[in-house]
Amino acid sequence: MSAISSNTPSIVREITRVSPELVKAASQFQAAILADVAGRRGTLHGRVKPVAAGMKLAGPAITVEVRQGDNLAIHAALAIAQPGDVIVVDGKGDLACALIGEIMTTQAQESGLGGLVLDAAVRDSAELAKNGFPVFAAGLNPCGPTKSVAGRVNYQISAGGATINPGDLIVGDADGVVVIPREDVERILVLAQKKVDAETARIAAIRKREALRPAWLDKELRAAGMLAEGEVL
Known about the structure:
Its cofactor is a divalent metal cation; Mg(2+). One of its GO terms (molecular function) is metal ion binding. By secondary structure, the protein is α/β, with parallel strands linked by helices. It has a single domain (20-189), classed as 3-Layer(bba) Sandwich (Glucose Oxidase, domain 1). It contains 7 helices and 10 strands. The strands form 2 sheets. Strands 1, 2, 3, 4, 5, 6, 9 and 10 form an 8-stranded mixed beta sheet that branches. The chain has a two-stranded antiparallel sheet with strand order 7-8. Helix 2 crosses helix 6 (185-207). The radius of gyration is 20 Å and the shape is elongated. The model has no long low-confidence stretch (mean pLDDT 95).
């Protein structure tokens, strides 16, 4: 992969990030809640999951595109990322070679980054799990990468089927990873709180056996043709 042209940089150093205040607020919500209120879109493919149980992350995206099996551009991203950033790598879903391991993860942790998300393989999984720094990946492979093919840093990418722009909000937990466009984060957080409040009330009603089934069920069954007009369960 070569640079776009001789006049276009492969590495964009300055980006506009979602604010730390919004990142902190977003970190209180499940990825599933954010995905729901964002229209049930923006989630990465389920193959991208935490390397170990309990790993969570939230932060602005530093985006990286690499050729399969090569991590040179990830090293560049590590060099320019700021504390709190989450490096997100479009590794084409390739699992033939790992793109990071314990050394690069330790560098990310000591640099104060918020985490790593790779649509690709990683290695040293036992060490990564023990360390606890949040790493989300599509799989594992002991084979190491090359470091010789040009990639791009801080351009729009597609990782795990989701479009991600530099500075977008990335949230990951046990269920996977969701991306929220930077300019939409504030609105989504308002909706997320409303959904949490509604779901909390719904669960409380279920536990009290006051409403064991959703109020909308009959209407939707009729709309789908599963119940006749006027028929109820």
